[in-house]
Specification:
The chain contains 15 helices and 15 strands. By secondary structure, the chain is of the alpha/beta class.
Length: 412
């Protein structure tokens, strides 16, 4: 989380090289293509949560799962020419609530993807699931269809807190979902847990973390409830804990997670050894991804045109379904300007605790790292970055004031 901002002028000055002459930004030159993932968006939920600003809708006219699967396959076929010959390192089926779709529908989707794109032998295939939408035994069927990682939206294990944030499941269902994941043979699953909930205290937050750890997930996403624009909570804000309480909750949780062997590798992500989410790591290292489904966004490095593009699809599911048939489902397709590539890269890579290897900047942006040398020097002076011969990494101060760090790269 971001703490209250302090004046950066109070940060001790470190010794860094003298300022260099600015390097002119030229057309990117890519010598290699990054890893490629596929994101699939399923935009329906039984009920819209009051804090959610994702593209999700209540299926008031029924759930058109097989019609939507057909549309996803057509969407994918439309995008395939962008990525001819490239292999897929991960697939993430998110939402919305993908576990509203039957195992048979998910099996059909994955079979269609495998028939059209080559997957790496160890490709990570994740399905998001909510405890209130998973019937007994369904996880085993998802696993048989090719899902090898689950992400379960728990948020809390306490009924009163779940009620305050509009969740449709109870604490018992959340526990049972994790137990079912183990029983189905998933040795790799994530639990989503939130803190800073209305009425939450250090005691109740600690109880949630303790319950989650006892369920032994491989990965835990632990993030603060925020009031996003265009949500019910933004219009009718609940009473949230004060900043000091939220900070104490987060610090205490991080200590408990570390003691149980969960290393923080990103702002809100904790994992056991070798269990980091590879799909999200590809996002954060500025890799490429196809986005299929209503409102899905993609990022594709084009070796022929020597640029990076961000296409996206029509957002509303009914309009998307109608448009796919006409191959008119593209909401937009923008080229990232060369001057914006450094900030786009940093907005992702600096979320990682370990930062990134210096070579990755040039590989993923197509630009020489010298164009941001002055920015790096400034960040070092402010104790926001640690820069070595091979690695660029946020300091503890840089993590706590990530917005301040990113602002240094907003103009070149």
């Amino acid at each position: 989380m971001d703490l209250p901002r302090s004046k950066l002028s109070s940060v001790p000055i470190l010794m860094v090289p003298a300022a260099r002459d600015p390097v002119e930004i030229s057309t990117p030159r890519f010598t290699a293509l990054p890893p490629l993932s596929v994101y699939v968006h399923i935009p329906w939920c039984i009920r819209k949560c009051p804090y959610c600003d994702f593209n999700s809708h209540e299926p008031k006219a029924g759930l058109p799962q097989y019609e939507y699967i057909d549309a996803l396959v057509q969407d994918l076929e439309f995008d395939i020419p962008r990525v001819w010959g490239r292999k897929i390192s991960s697939i993430f089926i998110g939402g919305g609530t993908p576990s509203l779709f039957s195992p048979e529908a998910i099996d059909g989707l994955l079979s269609a993807i495998r028939a059209r794109l080559p997957l790496l032998p160890n490709a990570e295939v994740t399905l998001e699931a909510n405890p209130g939408t998973v019937e007994q035994g369904r996880f085993a069927e998802y696993r048989a269809a090719g899902i090898n990682r689950l992400s379960i939206g728990v948020q809390s294990f306490q009924d009163d807190l779940l009620g305050r944030i509009g969740r449709i499941h109870g604490g018992h269902e959340a526990i049972r979902a994790a137990e079912q994941a183990h029983a189905a043979g998933f040795d790799n699953f994530n639990l989503d847990l939130m803190f800073g909930l209305p009425g939450q205290s250090l005691v109740t937050a600690t109880a949630d973390i303790a319950t989650a750890l006892d369920l032994e997930p491989a990965h835990l996403s632990y993030y603060q409830l925020t009031l996003e624009p265009n949500t019910y909570f933004a219009k009718h804000p609940p009473q949230l804990p004060v900043d000091d309480t939220i900070w104490i909750i987060q610090q205490h949780a991080q200590q408990l997670l570390a003691k149980r062997g969960y290393s923080q590798y990103e702002v809100s992500a904790y994992a056991r050894a070798e269990r980091q989410c590879r799909h999200n790591l590809n996002y954060w290292s500025f890799g490429d991804y196809l986005g299929i489904g209503a409102g899905a966004h993609g990022k594709i490095t084009d070796a022929k045109e020597q640029n990076v593009r961000r296409p996206w699809k029509i957002k509303h599911p009914s309009k998307y379904l109608d448009a796919v048939v006409r191959q008119d489902h593209i909401g937009g397709d923008a080229t990232i300007e060369a001057a914006d590539l450094p900030l786009e890269f940093m907005m992702n890579a600096l979320r990682l605790n370990a930062g990134f290897e210096r070579r990755l900047f040039s590989e993923r942006t197509g630009l020489p790292i010298e164009i941001i040398s002055d920015k790096l020097d400034d960040a070092v002076r402010r104790d926001l970055l640690s820069v070595s011969e091979n690695r660029i990494q946020p300091t503890l101060h840089g993590h706590r004031f990530l917005n301040d760090l990113l602002q240094l790269f907003m103009s070149l």
